[in-house]
TrEMBL record:
<dbReference type="Pfam" id="PF01547">
    <property type="entry name" value="SBP_bac_1"/>
</dbReference>
<protein>
    <submittedName>
        <fullName>Sorbitol/mannitol transport system substrate-binding protein</fullName>
    </submittedName>
</protein>
<dbReference type="InterPro" id="IPR006311">
    <property type="entry name" value="TAT_signal"/>
</dbReference>
<keyword id="KW-0732">Signal</keyword>
<dbReference type="InterPro" id="IPR006059">
    <property type="entry name" value="SBP"/>
</dbReference>
<dbReference type="InterPro" id="IPR050490">
    <property type="entry name" value="Bact_solute-bd_prot1"/>
</dbReference>
<feature type="signal peptide">
    <location>
        <begin position="1"/>
        <end position="25"/>
    </location>
</feature>
């Protein structure tokens, strides 16, 4: 569904300069700083439960690598994206390793910002790159070489309270449509008991609310641009998805939806305050973890809702990469290998429980008996979702960009955030859906015209 196009080196360079101008640099102690004879690796990561487990286990890496100390810079997702982009784009050298995704990896690899990891991977057969789920491995590759290695991978699906469905006499279909999900949310929405019919992200951010929203656009038959880079946010299909999402979350969603992201919905669902939650497949481990959830064993997991397509989910992976300017590449690779290897999965399972292991990246994880038992409710749905997360299954018309829940163009960090702000404003009732969409269309037109003028 996508036609190839060249990437835009000039804009990528300008993007780095722009971000540096608006964001403070990392602390004075940059990557590779020395202290008491130790080599310090500075690692920028997103702050979420899976990464926190890695930080908690980091002493094991340090014990295996005497003389190397790890310093983690943990930030919320939106802040992490901005700071990491600013540092890497401008060759700031603040970080020895960075957590990025399949959005950044191919673009940054082409622009020469990342170390090619393939020679190191090939030199270490025990790392076993063939164990990576193919769609995840390909998403982190450029011209056949991996420039980032996955910590975990995900698509999206619906978690739903089986007990509440049973009490209401409802049955989740094997492949639900969005209209069916809307009907379930209406039936199960119970503000008096503090239960939302569904939890959906409304928090601004191109990696926040736009992730689930864009999957609705795709399956409703919408697209951001046609093949000639004409913005199509004002098309009937996009408008229908826009109004549907806003209406669903306003009528049957969580309180304060305009500021709710993955973490907020996870907290609400785990406390039993939502009948359904549509989000990343990685949420299932948290839902089934007795240490963080009050609804363990009460959830079923259904494929991402669809409307006009065969599937409706996204494809995403948090991964680790080494900036090209890093001086401590050998030590940085040792860390990447440790955090993304098979042994790490075993360590997390044994230390914290099998519902907390990073999933969606290695096939071998799904062969571990303890994990299969712990993840019986969601292991196969996760693999199934990742396997069909491509444009051929989730879009109805050709587009000039890669990506499902994002557009793999450098401008999308700004464009997506601006559009998400309009979506959030409409959810909050601060703007009408029509006015918000009109503004979003204008933002998209500006970017589309730059591609048309450059002939790309």
């Amino acid at each position: 569904m996508r036609r190839p196009r060249p990437r835009r080196r000039g804009f990528l360079a300008r993007l780095g300069i722009l971000l540096t101008a608006v964001l403070p640099a990392a602390g004075c102690a940059g990557a590779g700083a020395l202290g008491a004879g130790d080599e310090t690796l500075v690692i920028a990561i997103v702050s979420n439960p899976q990464m926190e487990d890695a930080v908690a286990l980091s002493h094991r890496f340090e014990a295996q690598h005497p003389g190397v100390r790890l310093k983690f810079v943990q930030l919320p997702e939106n802040q992490a994206r901005a700071k990491i982009t600013a540092s890497v784009a401008n060759e700031g050298g603040e970080f020895d390793a960075v957590m990025i995704s399949n959005y950044e990896t191919p673009q940054w690899a082409e622009n020469g910002w990342l170390e090619n990891l393939q020679p190191r991977i090939d030199a270490d057969p025990s790392y076993d790159q063939d164990d990576f789920i193919p769609s995840i491995r390909d998403a982190l590759s450029y011209r056949g070489d991996m420039y980032a290695v996955p910590f975990y991978g995900e698509s999206s699906f619906v978690a739903y309270r089986k007990d509440l469905f049973e009490q209401a006499g409802l049955e989740m279909p094997r492949h639900p449509t969005w209209e069916q999900i809307q009907g379930f949310a209406k039936r199960l929405h119970d503000p008096e008991r503090g239960i939302a019919g569904i939890c959906l992200r409304g928090k601004p951010g191109w990696g926040e609310s736009l992730a689930p929203f864009n999957t609705v656009v795709n399956t409703f038959g919408g697209r951001w641009y046609d093949e000639n880079w004409n913005a199509r946010l004002d098309s009937p299909e996009f408008r229908k998805a826009w109004n549907f999402y806003i209406d669903l979350v306003r009528k049957h969603g969580e309180v304060g939806a305009s500021s709710a992201g993955f973490q907020e919905c996870g907290n609400r669902y785990g406390r039993g305050q939502a009948a359904m939650w549509y989000d990343a497949t990685v949420m299932a481990g948290t839902n089934e973890d007795p240490q963080s959830s009050e609804v363990v064993g009460k959830s079923g997991y259904a494929p991402a809702p669809r409307q006009r397509t065969e599937a409706g989910g996204w494809l995403y992976t948090w991964s680790l990469a080494i900036p090209q300017v890093t001086e401590n590449k050998d030590a940085a690779w040792d860390f990447l290998r440790w955090m993304t290897g098979k042994e790490f999965v075993q360590t997390v399972g044994n230390e914290f429980g099998w519902n907390r292991v990073p999933t969606g990246s290695r096939n071998s994880t799904y062969d571990i008996p303890e994990y299969r038992q712990a993840a019986e409710a969601y292991a196969q749905p996760t693999l199934d979702a990742i396997s069909v997360a491509d444009q051929e299954h989730t879009m109805t018309k050709p587009v000039p960009y890669d990506g499902l829940q994002f557009l793999s163009i450098p401008e999308f960090q700004d464009l997506g955030t601006r559009v998400s702000q309009q979506l959030s404003a409409a959810i909050a009732g601060q703007k009408s859906p029509d006015d918000a969409l009109t503004q979003a269309q204008e933002y998209a037109e500006t970017v589309g015209k730059s591609y048309q003028e450059s002939g790309e």
